[in-house]
Backbone:
């Protein structure tokens, strides 16, 4: 915003000529609101002008010439003394009407056919630029992050946004209009000298106003039609990113569980959540937004090199912030529209779990009764309590969610392989914590409520145990069977054994711990099934002959199946 005023400032210039005082008359008819600097002797100026006589006739104009006047004020000046005096004290963007008497112009001689003798001249001047050879690059910090761990140094590569304008406020270029940062090395001559100096010491996220005098910018050459010669440049710069080609992955451990039972190594398969941002905090990707962990092998090149390296040595439940320079990320090409070229990436990682394809079930005994003579094994019927969770503590399911604890026969494929294994060898009332890798759990497909490739943690307690029989059997002898068998079975010695007598005989063997029925099936059902297999002619009774099977014509071998 500017104000317009008509201020007639009378500069009294003493001129000894016939005893008369002569004046340069200055009319400051437009003064900008903000004026950080005024023209002084020794300064260089660049301005547009129109030169007229008092009657308004034009004799000269920089606008007609197509370029402004550039010169040094008061030092071997190229202009008439009155104009040299008239621009002193001007501000950039100020407009002045300077009336110059002839003795401070071209005097009694005039200037050829253009300026007659004793002519009073009037100049309408617009100051465009102002600098001094002693000027330095000016830096004004507009915003700076409180936590600045690193600043720009020579040889760093930077990515920044900018608006470039002239002192009069005209915008000549902007990275924002191109929707792309300006990317360059610092200190290698690829930037303006003034910009090189202005970027040094900046933090990512910092915003600076960098004012560069012409001799540290484009000097007398300018830049095409955008930047005129001898132009002071103002850059409004926001540093987006920075790194050095010598940078390695930076890992900041934010939280680590205690104890850390195991650290990840190459070849492990890992599941983790992440948030991905650029150095200025701009978000670009997140596993949370997909409600799914990122799953991969470590050290096998399936992820960018920096993350592959940063995942080495993590613990389950650990939080890490990982800063990955572009040469260990997506490099100079970036990745589509998601990752710009030469971008430093920051990942906040939360390790959910990891395992190795060679892992077995890990068993930790929490409590074991002192009297532990009978332990669970394949084919045993057990009742047990359990809580199942992921390694990060996420609850999945529990036997407490059901009216009563489950019963299952071990070794029959009724459970996931790792749980079946972890339940074997337990005493009644023993408690265990078992860790089951996914290839012994729900694998790559997962299950209802269970993510794919998830390591499972089970808390187990064995409540009941009934020893079983081998697969395919309904009954086994724990001691030597009676010999001969049929007379022992024929309890009333009538040479025939009906179902009731058969059932009484088998139940007696079980009661005396001489034999064992299949624990997973109703005993009456088991007895009926056993009886029907021995009652070969299905007449409702077993005879001695039916306990014998003819294997060949030469030999009769007694075979009683379970009996």
Residues:
């Amino acid at each position: 915003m500017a104000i317009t005023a008509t201020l007639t400032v009378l500069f009294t210039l003493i001129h000894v000529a016939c005893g008369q005082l002569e004046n340069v008359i200055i009319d400051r008819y437009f003064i900008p609101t903000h004026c950080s600097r005024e023209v002084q002797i020794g300064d260089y100026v660049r301005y547009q002008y129109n030169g007229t006589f008092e009657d308004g006739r034009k004799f000269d104009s920089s606008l007609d010439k197509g370029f402004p006047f550039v010169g040094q004020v008061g030092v071997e000046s190229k202009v008439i003394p009155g104009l040299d005096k008239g621009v002193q004290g001007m501000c950039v963007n100020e407009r002045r009407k300077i009336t110059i008497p002839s003795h401070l112009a071209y005097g009694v001689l005039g200037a050829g056919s253009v300026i007659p003798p004793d002519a009073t001249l009037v100049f309408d001047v617009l100051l465009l630029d102002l600098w001094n050879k002693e000027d330095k690059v000016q830096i004004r910090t507009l915003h700076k992050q409180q936590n600045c761990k690193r600043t720009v140094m020579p040889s760093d590569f930077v990515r920044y946004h900018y608006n470039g304008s002239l002192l009069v406020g005209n915008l000549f270029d902007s990275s924002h209009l191109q929707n792309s940062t300006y990317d360059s090395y610092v200190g290698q001559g690829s930037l303006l000298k003034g910009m090189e100096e202005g970027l040094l010491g900046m933090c990512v996220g910092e915003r600076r106003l960098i004012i560069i005098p012409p001799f540290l910018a484009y000097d007398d050459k300018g830049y095409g039609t955008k930047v005129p010669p001898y132009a002071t440049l103002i850059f409004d710069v926001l540093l987006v990113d920075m790194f050095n080609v010598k940078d390695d992955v930076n890992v900041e451990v934010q939280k680590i569980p205690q104890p850390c039972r195991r650290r990840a190594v190459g070849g492990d398969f890992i599941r983790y959540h992440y948030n991905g941002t650029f150095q200025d905090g701009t978000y670009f990707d997140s596993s949370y937004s997909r409600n799914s962990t990122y799953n991969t092998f470590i050290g096998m090149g399936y992820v960018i090199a920096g993350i592959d390296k940063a995942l080495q040595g993590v613990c389950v439940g650990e939080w890490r912030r990982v800063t990955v320079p572009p040469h260990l990320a997506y490099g100079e090409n970036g990745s589509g529209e998601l990752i710009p070229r030469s971008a430093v990436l920051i990942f906040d990682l939360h390790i959910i779990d990891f395992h190795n394809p060679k892992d077995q079930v890990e068993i930790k005994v929490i409590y074991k009764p002192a009297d532990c003579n009978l332990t669970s094994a394949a084919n045993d019927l057990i009742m047990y309590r359990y809580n199942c969770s992921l390694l990060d503590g996420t609850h999945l399911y529990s036997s407490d969610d059901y009216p009563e604890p489950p019963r299952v026969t071990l070794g029959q494929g009724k459970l996931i392989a790792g749980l079946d294994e972890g339940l074997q060898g337990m005493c009644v009332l023993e408690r265990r914590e078992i860790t089951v890798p996914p290839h012994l759990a729900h694998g790559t497909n997962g299950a209802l409520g269970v993510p794919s490739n998830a390591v499972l943690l089970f808390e187990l307690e064995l409540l009941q145990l009934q020893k079983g029989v081998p697969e395919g059997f309904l009954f086994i002898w724990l001691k030597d069977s009676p010999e001969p068998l049929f007379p022992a079975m024929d309890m009333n010695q009538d040479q025939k054994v009906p179902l009731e007598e058969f059932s009484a005989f088998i139940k007696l063997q079980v009661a005396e711990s001489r034999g064992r029925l299949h624990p997973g099936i109703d005993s009456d059902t088991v007895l009926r099934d056993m009886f029907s297999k021995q009652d070969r002619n299905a007449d409702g009774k077993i005879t001695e002959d039916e306990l014998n099977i003819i294997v060949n014509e030469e030999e009769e071998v007694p075979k009683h199946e379970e009996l």
User: Anything to note?
Assistant: The chain has five domains: 25-131, 138-243, 250-355, 362-466, 475-554. The CA atoms of residues 525 and 531 lie 10 Å apart. The longest strand covers residues 20-32. Residues 25-131 form a domain with the Chitinase A; domain 3 fold (CATH 3.10.50.40).
